[in-house]
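Researcher: For the annotation table, I need structure tokens for Astrocytic phosphoprotein PEA-15. Please keep the output clean. Sequence:
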Amino acid sequence: PAMAEYRRLLEELAQNITAEDLAQLKSACREDIPSGESEAIATSHHWFDFLERHSKLDRDNLSYIEHIFEISRRPDLLTMVVQYRTQVLKISEEDEVDTKLTRIPSAKKYKDIIRQPSEEGIIKLAPPP
């Protein structure tokens, strides 16, 4: 059943990736796709197949496409992947800190930095007159 869920996720993602999106996604991972192969990737299905063949994507390792969707500014696609991960793989954000399966979403990564400003990051206010 997990494989079927994974295929359903890829299908759902594929339906939300236009030709323009695909060009942007291929560009975002250009260091991983030889230029000759990039031309051959004409659909999002081809793109997913390519990533699977090159061990960048599989049923329980989605961190690569999460990263690509993040840098391509596609929170809608990223959300689908995160939902799959938490519901199908049962990996919550708390669990994933210790795993190499997934990356910590950037918002969570930066939250802690925001919470503890560094000394030079603190704006000193002059005492009231």
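Researcher: And a one-line annotation?
Model: Residues 97-118 have pLDDT under 50 and may be disordered.
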